[in-house]
Amino acid sequence: MTYRLVVFDVDGTLADSFPWFSAVFNDVADRFGIRRVAPDEVAAMRRCGPRELLAMLGVARWKVPMIARHMRALKTEAIATIPLFPDAGKMLAAVAARGPVLTVVSSDTEANVRAMLGPEKAALVRHFACSAGMFGKARKFRAVLRRFGVRPHEAIAIGDEVRDAEAARAVGMAFGAVTWGYTDAAVMRACGPDLVFERMDEIASALTPPFERRRRPPVAPTIVPTSTPVSVPAGVPMSAPRIAPVIAAARGRPFRPVPVRRSHSVR
Questions:
Q1: Which residues are CB-contacts of 256 (< 8 A; sequence separation ≥ 6)?
Q2: Distance separating alpha carbons of residues 195 and 192, to the nearest angstrom
Q3: Strand pairing class (174-178; 195-197)
Q4: pLDDT by residue (tens digit) across 92-122?
Q5: Are strands 155-159 and 5-8 parallel, antiparallel or unpaired?
Q6: Helical (H) or strand (E) element with 76
Q7: Are the beta carbons of 145 and 151 closer than 8 angstroms?
Q8: Which is higher by pLDDT, 165 or 267?
Q9: Cα distances (Å, whole numbers) of residue 223 to 211, 220, 226, 230
Q10: Confidence of residue 2 (pLDDT cuts 50, 70, 90)
Q11: Which of 147, 144, 137, 140 is closest to 167 using CA atoms?
């Protein structure tokens, strides 16, 4: 399949931020009065979808925006310690070289995303739609599609969470699941993605050059052969009334002249 637009998630897809998230989570939990996560519970947490995760942690929906703002601020302080996954930059360059528009939709701030990518890799991204709510990515996807005049079936979102898949499905976009991010790989495979990526270098090869305009070869004019070559006597002017009997005779057909009605003038 070819795509005109590719939308990347960042945390868990391009940036290896889960170790940082795990390190700060319990402090954030204490601050906002939600359930702490023991080390042996991390695997279970990664198998949860977004709603199941909120239920597991005892997070009220109204607290989510406040927690998200606080987490973004903490990440800004630690941004230099959060690396990209190996070959993420190489993959972005390879995808960009194939022609589609590269965009980012993230729950993080644009400043944090740009800092994690670095100037060279950020320059490959045509548009950043950031600070998406936990359940607000579908709205961001629609805005990106409108911005670039792309229809949903011409675009693909690539991410590491079930909510990325749900948002893409709600908009009508394709979804490519990565297996190295926040959510357990088996859960991502089970959420119905259009593509599953086990390695970073699989992404570019799956996104073939989009919508190449292939010129059709010129169609040769159809020539109807005659059974006998038509020869016209030299020196005879070939107006339509004169040449018609010649052609008819050459083709072995009787010539039937069409009667011409003459108009009568009214005196």
A1: none
A2: 9
A3: parallel
A4: 999 999 999 999 999 999 999 999 999 999 9
A5: parallel
A6: helix 64-78
A7: yes
A8: 165
A9: 34, 9, 9, 14
A10: confident
A11: 137
Domain boundaries defined on the chain: 5-206, 225-257
Q: Is the pLDDT of residue 255 over 60?
A: no
What is the Cα–Cα distance from 188 to 175, expressed in whole angstroms? 11
Q: CA 1, CA 24: separation in Å to the nearest integer? A: 40
pLDDT in tens, 24-64: 999 999 999 999 999 999 999 999 989 999 999 999 999 99
| CA-based nearest residue to 204, from 100, 122, 94 | 94
Counting every residue written for the chain, the total comes to 267
pLDDT tens per residue, range 173-223: 999 999 999 999 999 999 999 999 999 999 998 986 544 434 444 545 545
Residue 153 tokens, joined: 């079936």
Helix/strand/coil (H/E/C) assignment for every residue in 150-212: CCHHHEEEEECCHHHHHHHHHHCCEEEEECCCCCCHHHHHHCCCCEEECCCHHHHHHCECCCC
Residues 6+ apart with CB under 8 A from 142: 171
- The answer to whether 93 and 200 have CB atoms below 8 angstroms apart is no
Q: What is the CATH number of domain 5-206?
A: 3.40.50.1000
